[in-house]
């Protein structure tokens, strides 16, 4: 589905009791949104924020109003609005049928069911239905909102609407510099920059 991401650990992760696990996701397109979606599902299930190889022992089930995982997404664009799925043209279709586009693990036909419920296709045709790309984007945003809601106060997601211009690692963790000169610091970094922007430089002038 043209979504790719790469995860990088920091030089130092938080120690027990030092606060939530901080994850910086560079990119809010399909890849970045899927990362946040799966983090939310892990937090809701009580599997994220637990002990890791760097010694962090925060748990997703910790009490109080402090989140166990703090995600910062860096991207000037809205979620799932990059080159692959940001098109507004309904004629731009997925190149994979609905049966291959579920975002929910173990539920292969989740997107199929969503398409039928939305009236995009009939139950008989839904499995091999090639949906418009912008409808899949809306499906992912819907499932992302649901997953985040299921975490209660255990997950905090902040969207920094700026372009990431640099990455460094220091004693405080992974540091992402943005176009406005500010910095976002985390314990884990996910590069989810996806595809390059669409251009027409390759086409003949005439």
Automatic annotation (TrEMBL):
Gene3D superfamilies reported in the protein's UniProt record: D-Amino Acid Oxidase, subunit A, domain 2, FAD/NAD(P)-binding domain
Domain FAD-dependent urate hydroxylase HpyO/Asp monooxygenase CreE-like FAD/NAD(P)-binding: 24-194
Region Disordered: start-end pairs: 48-69
Biased composition (Low complexity): 48-60
Pfam name, any one: NAD_binding_9
Name recorded for this polypeptide: FAD-dependent urate hydroxylase HpyO/Asp monooxygenase CreE-like FAD/NAD(P)-binding domain-containing protein
Species in which this protein is naturally found: Gordonia paraffinivorans NBRC 108238
